[in-house]
C-alpha cells in the first residue's frame, strides 16, 4: 500500500462518498504505475486490435475520425493479465471495502485513449447499464494524464447521487459518440474536477457524469476505469459476467438481459 493511503485517508474518502456520492483519491497510483498502464495500451494498440474488445481502424479507413482510430478498449481484463491486475489493485480494493462496507467484486474494466479532437461521452448514470440488484455499482476512474475541461476531463453533477435512474432521454446515437445527454436536474451544475495522473475518482451508479470533447491540439486524456459491486449483489446485467474478486477468482451472479456496456444507449 502507498503512504498516501492510510486509514485516516480512507475514512475521509468514505465520509466524502457518503455525503456526495463521489470522492477523489489523490495520487492513488504512482507515476511508474501510470506509465506502465499507458505503455501497455500503446502496445495493445500497436498490435492492431483484439477481436471483441478493441477494434481500431487505420488512419485512412477511419476517414478523419480519431475515435475510430483510437476507440475505447472494453473489458481489457478479459484478454490482458496486466489490465486484470490493475482492475483488482489492492489500493482500489481497500477504498472500495470502506465505500461498500463489504467485500468488493470487479465487473468491468475500460481504457480510454481520448486523443486530441475526440468527442466526449454524454451524461449518463452507470446503474442504467449495470442493473445491479440490490444496491448499486461504484466506478473507480483513474486519470492517466492531467485532466481538465480543455482535454475532456470527467464531468460530474454533484447532488445527483441519490437520483432516480433515468437515462430514457438518451437518444439513439451511441453516447460515446457524443450523442444526447440526460438533462441536468434544475438547480444543479456540472463540474469538472482537475485531476493529476494517478488520481482516482470513485462515484456511485446514480451520479450523473460524462465528459466533454478533447479540444486540445496536443494533450491526450487517457484513463483506466473499473466498475465494482458489493459481494451481496444478487444480479447484474449479463454484459458484466463473470465478476472477479480481488484475489483474481471469477465469481458468478444471476445475469439479467436488461443492461449493456456502460455509456452505450439502451431503450
Ligand atoms: O471517460 C469518460 O470520458 C467517460 C467515462 C464514463 O462515463 C464511464 O466510465 O461511465
How would you describe the overall organization of this protein?
The chain is built from six helices and 13 strands. It has 267 residues and is an alpha+beta fold. It has one domain (7-256): Jelly Rolls (Sandwich). Strands 1, 2, 3, 5, 7, 9, 11 and 12 form an eight-stranded antiparallel sheet that branches. Helix 1 (7-20) packs across helix 5 (90-100). The longest helix is centred in the N-terminal third of the chain and has 16 residues, at 31-46. It is globular and about 50 Å long. Residues 171-176 have low confidence and may be disordered. Bound molecules: 2-oxoglutaric acid.
Write a compact overview of the structure shown.
This protein is of the alpha+beta class and 267 residues long.
The CATH top-level class label: Mainly Beta
The biggest sheet amounts to: 8 strands, antiparallel
CATH architecture designation:
Sandwich
- Annotated CATH topology: Jelly Rolls
Q: Please tell me what the overall shape is.
A: globular
Query: Termini separation (Å)?
Result: 42 Å
Number of helices: 6
Amino acid at each position: 500500500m502507498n503512504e498516501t493511503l492510510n486509514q485516516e485517508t480512507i475514512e475521509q474518502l468514505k465520509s466524502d462518498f457518503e455525503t456526495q456520492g463521489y470522492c477523489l483519491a489523490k495520487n492513488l497510483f504512482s507515476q511508474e504505475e501510470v506509465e506502465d498502464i499507458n505503455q501497455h495500451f500503446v502496445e495493445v494498440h500497436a498490435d492492431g486490435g483484439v477481436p471483441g474488445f478493441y477494434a481500431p481502424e487505420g488512419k485512412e479507413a477511419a476517414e478523419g475520425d480519431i475515435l475510430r482510430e483510437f476507440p475505447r478498449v472494453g473489458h481489457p481484463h478479459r484478454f490482458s493479465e496486466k489490465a486484470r491486475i490493475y482492475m483488482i489493485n489492492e489500493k482500489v480494493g481497500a477504498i472500495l471495502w470502506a465505500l461498500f462496507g463489504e467485500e468488493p467484486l470487479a465487473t468491468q474494466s475500460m481504457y480510454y485513449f481520448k486523443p486530441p479532437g475526440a468527442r466526449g461521452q454524454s451524461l449518463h448514470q452507470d446503474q442504467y447499464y449495470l442493473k445491479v440488484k440490490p444496491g448499486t455499482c461504484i466506478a473507480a476512474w483513474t486519470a492517466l494524464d492531467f485532466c481538465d475541461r480543455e482535454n475532456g476531463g470527467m464531468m460530474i453533477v454533484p447532488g445527483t447521487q441519490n437520483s432516480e435512474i433515468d437515462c430514457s432521454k438518451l437518444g439513439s446515437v451511441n453516447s460515446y459518440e457524443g450523442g444526447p445527454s440526460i438533462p441536468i436536474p434544475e438547480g444543479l451544475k456540472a463540474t469538472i474536477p482537475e485531476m493529476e495522473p494517478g488520481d482516482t475518482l470513485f462515484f456511485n451508479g446514480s451520479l450523473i457524469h460524462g465528459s466533454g470533447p478533447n479540444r486540445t491540439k496536443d494533450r491526450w486524456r487517457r484513463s483506466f476505469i473499473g466498475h465494482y459491486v458489493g459481494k451481496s449483489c444478487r444480479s447484474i446485467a449479463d454484459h458484466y459476467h463473470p465478476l472477479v474478486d480481488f484475489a483474481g477468482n471469477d465469481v458468478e451472479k444471476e445475469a439479467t438481459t436488461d443492461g449493456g456496456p456502460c455509456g452505450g444507449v439502451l431503450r
